[in-house]
Amino acid sequence: MLEISNNVSLADWEIELSAIRATGNGGQRVNKVATAIHLRFDIKRSSLPTIYKERLLTSKDSRVTKEGVVIIKAQKFRTQEMNKEDALARLKDFILAMMVIQKRRRATKPTKGSVKRRLAGKANRKVVKQTRKKVQF
After folding, report:
1. Which residue range or ranges hold the Prokaryotic-type class I peptide chain release factors domain (predicted)?
2. Which residue range forms the structural domain that includes residue 42?
3. Nearest 5°: phi and psi at 134?
4. C-alpha dihedral, 55 to 63 to 100 to 76, nearest 10°
5. What's the mean per-residue pLDDT of the chain?
6. Model-level pTM greater than 0.90?
């Protein structure tokens, strides 16, 4: 059972975990032990509330496939258990991040004083650079 919030949780049957071999350079045990975890979570089949499902399905994140499946690969740690915990934590963080409502950005204009100061600074730099030129006799 994965607790997302106080009233939202995911059952174990909704999350599919499979052990795979980690990629990258390893050591002597690299070709023998499957320590990486491949997590698959089907959004459409899940018991999440509809608002969660809508936000997850409309996200532009590369971890969500066209079919509505979240795929997370965890291979940060050397043990399978720690990678499993990492994958579940990343799934929880991803779901919670999709529920955060972004503030709308309002377009603003710079003040007249700030424009004047910026232009004065640019004019000052121009004078400084002109004094570095070779002197004509």
Report:
1. 7-132
2. 2-98
3. -65, 145
4. 150
5. 87
6. no
Residue at 128 is within a domain: no
17 within some domain:
yes
Residue 53 and residue 46 in contact, taking contact as beta carbons nearer than 8 Å: yes
Tokens coding 9: 């949780």
CA 122 to chain centre: 38
In a domain, 103, yes or no: no
Rounded-to-integer distance, Cα 13 and Cα 55, Å: 22
User: Are 38 and 18 within 8 A, CB to CB?
Assistant: yes
Kindly report the length of the chain: 137
Using alpha carbons, select from 68, 73, 55 the residue that is nearest to residue 4. Answer: 55
Q: How far apart are CA 51 and CA 44, in angstroms?
A: 12
